[in-house]
Structure formats: C-alpha cells, structure tokens
Amino acid sequence: MAMMYSKEVMEHFTKPRNVGEIEHPDGVGEVGNPVCGDMMTFHITVKDGKIDNVKFKTFGCGAAIAVSSMVSEMAMGRTLDEALKITKSDVAKKLGGLPTNKMHCSNLGADALHEAIADYLQKQGKPIALLSKSEGEEAEVREPVAGCACPYCDSPVDPEGATCAPCGKSFRVCPECGKPMRAESAECPSCGAAVTG
C-alpha cells in the first residue's frame, strides 16, 4: 500500500530549500537514525542573536528531505531561543502531517537544528542543555569541571552530570580515575581500567 504524502511534503521534497553547506558556519549539527539510515547535517550562521543563514545536507527518504527543508525555513530569521523551541510536532504540522512510520524524520530535523545551535553556543562558551529527545523536558545544566571532557564531542563537562549539555549524549564515569568515558566502552581511555556493567 502506497504512503500518502501531503502536497507540502511533496513540494519540499521535489524543490527543497536551503540545500548545501556554509563555508564557515557558526554552528554545525549532525544527527542520524541507524535504523532507517537517514542522516541530516545542518549548518547555521548567527547574527545579532538570530539565525542569519541555514543550509542542510540530508541523506535519506523523501520525508527526511522535506523535513530538513521545512526546518531550515522555519529557523531562518528566528532568535536562538525561538529556534530551540521548534518541535517535531511543529514540523509535522507545517508539512500537513506525516505518515506514522515517518514521524521520526521530523524528530531528526528538529534535533539537527538544535545540535547546530548547541554547537554555536558551546563555541561562544555558553553550553546549553538540549531538550531531552524523548521527554521534551529541559535537561539539568551542570557546570563543566576543568580537565573533564565529553568522550563524544570533547566539550568540558561535569562528570557527575552523566550527560553532555552541548551534544546531549550520556556518558559513564570510570570508577578508577573518575574521568568521563563512552557509555558503550568497556575500557577507560584515560587510565586503561576495565569497566564492567
């Protein structure tokens, strides 16, 4: 049975807006869904606290391309706070709805934009807590600790926080040296200790 896409989805899929890269972006956000294979990269420039330019590159289905195009249009000219409040339901609504099995695409588009903003703010020395991907609640903001870096993005982090504010990824702490390490790792890269559990 064929999926029915709205005319807005088809319009943004066949004539996507803001495709490409920015040569010297202020922020870059990249997200992917390994299950469906969709990958989105957003580049932004910021001027006077507003998103001045947005470009994206998406590898994925028609819905993923349409979502990226719509998110780029929705973000253009908005303040960072306004852009961070763009949700997956906002995107799906603007596109006239998405089939249930394609709703994850609208999640990816908003997430990629939020990651680009977080990257920009982190470069400005203003790390933020991204919206929780599942709960939609603000993550707790913790002050970075000198010498402790996120094992995923190298941003300064508080090891007690267990979640990196700039990239939003959860990490674990080595019981031997107390340094952050990747959640999936069995060996601490800082001290070499074997970590189980």
Written description of the protein model:
The protein is of the alpha+beta class and 197 residues long. It folds into two domains: 7-123, Sufe protein. Chain: A, CATH 3.90.1010; 129-197, no CATH class. The protein is built from five helices and five strands; from the N terminus they run αβββααααββ. The chain has helices at 7-14, 62-75, 80-84, 88-94, 103-123; strands at 27-33, 38-47, 50-59, 171-173, 180-182. The strands form two sheets. Strands 1-2-3 form a three-stranded antiparallel beta sheet. A two-stranded antiparallel sheet has the order 4-5. Strand 2 (38-47) and strand 3 form a beta hairpin. The protein starts with 6 loop residues before the first helix and ends in a 15-residue tail after the last strand. The relative contact order is 0.12.
Number of discrete domains:
2
* Number of E-type strands: 5
State the end-to-end distance: 44 Å
The stretches of 5 or more residues where confidence is low (pLDDT under 50) are 131-143
Please report which band the strand proportion falls in: under 5%, 5-15%, 15-25%, 25-35%, 35-45% or over 45%. 15-25%
- Outline: globular
Q: Summarize the helix and strand pattern as letters.
A: HEEEHHHHEE
Secondary structure tally, helices:
5
Largest sheet: 3 strands, antiparallel
The CATH level-2 architecture of the largest domain is identified as: Alpha-Beta Complex
The mean pLDDT is: 80
What is the CATH domain class of the largest domain? Answer: Alpha Beta
How large, in whole angstroms, is the Cα Rg? 18 Å
SS-based class: alpha+beta
Helix content: 25-40%
